[in-house]
Amino acid sequence: MPTVTVDPDDARDRLREAGIEVLAGNTDHERWRAERGDAVAVAYDDKVVVQGSSPTDLTLLLRDGGGRAHVYFDGASRGNPGPAAVGWAIVSSDGVVAEGSERIGRRTNNQAEYEALLRALRAARDLGLDEIDVRGDSQLVVKQLHGEWNTNDPELQELRVTARELLRAFDRWDVEHVPREINERADDLANEALDDR
To answer: Which of the seven top EC classes does this enzyme belong to (predicted)?
Structure first.
């Protein structure tokens, strides 16, 4: 069980700011409890103990500084436009701290790539991360975010603006194009979502 050395009052405030309900403790020794995903945080006088199968659901929010992680994203479309899905994974020094995938209806491949990025950025923000290294195998998305390539497609322009707004929530970020092999988990998640009918 991870123990986070943090002022329990500060930790409670961080959790509430993140929209997590904080409840009274179950015993006289517990100051409060909170749950998120597969993690439960229990506050004592001078520390917070996190239990559960996925403690990083809470530990990243509780630590000072929020932490740093790599954010991988991938979108897939069969037909371009056609049925589309997204996959993303967030990896910190603790391992995979969050991942997700879902079908997103009919989209082009580039729209699906941006949708995957947006979901990954929102998840990283919700985890309370301060620094992120974003990695994806879509050269178009990466070059557009860096301002190296323009887009005439109004929907892609809107998605790019939203991505840039989300990136501003982090103290430090960078976005880099990587080969598909390095982005394998996000790619697998997107394709698995497409295969689930």
So the answer is: hydrolase
| Number of Cβ atoms within 10 Å of the Cβ of 9 | 11
Residue 80, sorted as left (phi over 0), alpha (psi -120 to 50) or beta, turns out to be left
Residues present in the chain in total: 197
d(C-alpha 73, C-alpha 88), whole Å: 4
| Helix-, strand-, coil-residue percentages of the chain, each rounded to 5 | 35, 35, 30
Q: Which domains does the chain have, with CATH numbers?
A: 3-62 (3.30.310.10), 68-195 (3.30.420.10)
Average pLDDT over residues 127-133: 90
Q: How remote is the C-alpha of 7 from its chain's centroid?
A: 25
The answer to whether residues 55 and 40 touch, using CB atoms and an 8 Å cutoff, is no
Amino acid symbol at 86: V
Contacts of 61 (CB under 8 A, 6+ apart): 14, 15, 18, 20, 36, 127, 128
Report which DSSP code applies to 139.
H
Is there a contact between 193 and 102 (Cβ–Cβ < 8 Å)?
Answer: yes
For residue 147, pLDDT beyond 70: yes
Q: Left if phi > 0, otherwise alpha if psi is -120 to 50, otherwise beta: which for 19?
A: left
